[in-house]
Amino acid sequence: MIIRPAQAGDATAIAEITNAIIRETLITFTTIERSLDSIASDINARGAAYLVAEVERQVLGFATYGPFRSGPGYSQSREHSVQLSPKARNQGAGRALMTALEDVARSEGVHVLVAGISSANPGAVAFHAALGFEITGQMPEVGFKWGKRLDLVLMQKILAQD
């Protein structure tokens, strides 16, 4: 397995992964599928902070981060996303992506990575806990999808001590 920076040409594979998750699961609260152009734009804008896991030239997952909240007081905090195709789950791709993403974040001066996780995805809570993230809050019923009200579990990891 290779972990490498995403390229605009990876947008199709990334769209297949993320749009299936949007269509078929409660892992994300969004119902709007991502376009190839929007994904390619994110890849270009985020640079080293957009990684893919590749096996035999096939993208099986990705991890990236973006702003946590607006304003200069949050400039050292980022919210991340890590998503895998079904065939990549439980194969170490998620851990490899997150380890590499944390390294990128540290090199870019990020102090805290935040995870916003759907309560319908307890596996992601366990995954993040195994990586050293801690639950810092739960926001009841802030998500709504498929007629269901869902909680948002907030987790964070402090990457470096000042």
TrEMBL record:
Residues 1-151 form the N-acetyltransferase domain. The keyword Lipid biosynthesis does not apply. InterPro entries: Acyl_CoA_acyltransferase (IPR016181), GNAT_dom (IPR000182). The keyword Transferase applies. One of its GO terms (molecular function) is acyltransferase activity, transferring groups other than amino-acyl groups. SUPFAM superfamilies: Acyl-CoA N-acyltransferases (Nat). Its EC number is 2.3.1.-. Keywords: Acyltransferase, Transferase. It is an enzyme of class 2 (transferase). PANTHER family: N-ACETYLTRANSFERASE, UPF0039 PROTEIN C11D3.02C. This is N-acyltransferase YncA.
